[in-house]
Amino acid sequence: MAFNFNRLDRRRFLRGSGAALALPLLSSNLPLSASNSAGRENPKRMACIYFPDGVPMPLREDPAYQDWSWFPHGGGTEFTFTKCTDAFEPLRDDLTVLSGFSHPGARKVHGHRNADQFLTAAEIRRDGPYKNAVSLDQVYAEHVGDQTRFSSLVMSTDGGIGTPRAAQTLSFNRAGRAIPAEQSPKRIFDMLFVKSNVDAARRLANNESALDEMLEDANDLRSILSSDDRLRFDEYLDSVREAEIRVQKAREWVNRPLPTVDRAKMEADISPESPRLYVQTMLDMIYLAFKTDSTRVATYQIGRENGAGVSDRLARAVGFNLAHQLTHDTKNPGGWENLGKYCRFLNEEFARFTTRLKETPEPAGTGSMLDNTLLLFGSASSAFHLSRNYPLVLAGGRNMEIKHGKYLNYAGSNPISGAWSGGPEPYTKKIEQEDQPLTRVFVTMLQQLGMETNSFAGATGNFPDLLS
């Protein structure tokens, strides 16, 4: 088969027996005007990854404070990670930890409802009519989505949209309507990388590789690639093959129905490592979607609040039963450490994903993929589902003039924390220092992603500290 690169763009596929695999972005298949030259603009991507129910925030006098506080000790460029967050240490110069940010309209919202407004900043009342707004990812998708095969990738562990005030998706359109999230790695893989007819679908159902029928086509293509692109192309095929294997394993966990048997039987049926594999595979889908330039916008809601859904069982990755219960057991001996170990698992997987982007040269561009990608990772709760002082990490974007290596603490020296006594919940208490509006971070992200805007959700102003 002869290839004509004048007709080959980044949306072209390798083909075999009715299946098709998306090509990676290569310098050889770009028009001259888009080749790797001084005038070329790199793609700019954004991914937002959310976890529910907050983080460990023991008081200073608590023995767990030194090791298991989620927020670092110190500030500015002089700070140290704890055991909860030390997975970020190798990425220290590629990320910024943020403290003291929240959405003003959500500060009195109970933490069981926070995913709804994490990327929208909407004021969602406890009851009455439900009204949301457009999410950060969809604002950027409107700007850049027509340049890729998919305008955005919307994922969550629980899938679908959930219910009002209990969202199972982070993404909302201009009308404030929830955009359904995909939870199956297999369906995401096929959607992104394999277009198939009935015969191909049957072959894939029999666990045959999507790549097997395409190797002859791939060899023809490899023969006319540059040496650099040949290396990138082979690494891409290896990545897809690896992801394909992981998808087959991970879908066994997410497709398992919610248990109706006793807890002991449930423990025996599910491997503690399956949830970790599942989270890794979902993040791998974002990596491969970005690498093939199938989309430049992605969201992944790792879990939903209030302990409902399959996502609550992710705690089994580190030997616990249910994730949400860990947040209510912090007043028990060892409670902060247990919650810290679960949060460390999430931090490790985010760090692994971020590192993979950092170690991958930008296809047909400059720097690494991480240099051209903004990653927002965090929760809309701090301790006890408190809707203030969100735990947040912003990573990547070196080629977008984002300056990292800092812990920006605007929460003061004594944010609300400690073990909940069971009395009035902390979100109802008056605090001495108001948070910074998180929308200022959103505006900064959109500006550095190339959008001309100075407002988000009706709030104006950016956050220059991220740029200096």
Structural features, described:
- Keywords: Signal.
- It comes from Rubripirellula tenax.
- This is DUF1552 domain-containing protein.
- This protein is α/β, with parallel strands linked by helices.
- The protein has two domains: 1-41 and 188-254, no CATH class; 46-184 and 257-467, Alkaline Phosphatase, subunit A (3-Layer(aba) Sandwich), CATH 3.40.720.
- The chain is 28% helix and 14% strand.
- The protein has eleven helices and 18 strands.
- The strands form six sheets. The protein has a seven-stranded mixed beta sheet with strand order 8-12-3-13-14-6-15, with helices on both faces.
- The model is unreliable at 1-11, 30-38, 197-201 and 258-272 (pLDDT under 50).
Residue-averaged pLDDT:
82
**What's the structural domain tally?**
2
Order of helices and strands: EEEHEEEEHEEEHEHHHHHEHHEEEEHEE
**Which residues sit in consecutive blocks of at least 5 with pLDDT less than 50?**
1-11, 30-38, 197-201, 258-272
Structural class by SSE content: alpha/beta
The portion of residues assigned to helices is: 25-40%
Largest sheet, in brief, is:
7 strands, mixed
CATH class of the largest domain reads: Alpha Beta
At CATH level 3, the topology of the largest domain is Alkaline Phosphatase, subunit A
The CATH architecture assignment of the largest domain turns out to be 3-Layer(aba) Sandwich
Rough shape?
A: globular
Portion in beta strands? 5-15%
What's the β-strand tally?
18
Keywords: Signal
Pfam families: HXXSHH
Protein name: DUF1552 domain-containing protein
Signal peptide: 1-34
